[in-house]
């Protein structure tokens, strides 16, 4: 069982990484492997709105100059996805926003590639903007028919300089509880297997309000 955790921070070993590592360590205690991918330190292009992913129906983005297509393939094979970001100007980083814009578009127009996978957002914050960032990241899961995991508080930790988030005891506790809930749900889905009928989740009706 595998979870991919995308670190949207340009600082690969900053507070976001510390929170994701806390989740990964606890998941490991429950038999789930978590791989942290540092996308924030890489160049991730934004969506060009070309519509090729809808026309081609091959599960790929037409922009091939960054690792997104590699990540998309790995996300389809994973059991769960975590999106982590620090707060920049009251929102997620530009890198992870570009990532979720393109990944969500490709996934949605190709039959919801991540449907019924388990997802969670993790936010590192100095002072304000955490809830808005958390909400933005969660939009990626909810539009793709994924299951969003909760914890004992919203999934955020407070700190400014690298490592300071380790002083947020409640934040670390939230990460541990998140990992436990996520591991439990992934195992439940695996156990259900073919024993429970999968409900249809079609996208047959698209309404435009332009007259």
Number of strands: 6
- Termini separation: 48 Å
- The CATH superfamily bears the name Flavodoxin domain
Radius of gyration: 17 Å
Form type: globular
Mean pLDDT: 95
Return the string of H and E elements. Answer: EHEHHEHEHEEH
Low-confidence stretches: none
The name of the CATH architecture is: 3-Layer(aba) Sandwich
Total domain modules: 1
Estimate the helix proportion, in percent: 25-40%
Q: What is the CATH class name?
A: Alpha Beta
Helix count equals 6
Verbal overview:
The protein has 211 residues and is an alpha/beta fold. The chain has a single domain (2-195), classed as Rossmann fold, CATH 3.40.50.360. Helices cover 40% and strands 15% of the residues. Helix 5 (130-143) links the parallel strand 4 and strand 5 (147-148). The longest helix is centred in the last third of the chain and has 24 residues, at 169-192. The chain starts with a strand and ends in a 19-residue tail after the last helix. The model has no long low-confidence stretch (mean pLDDT 95).
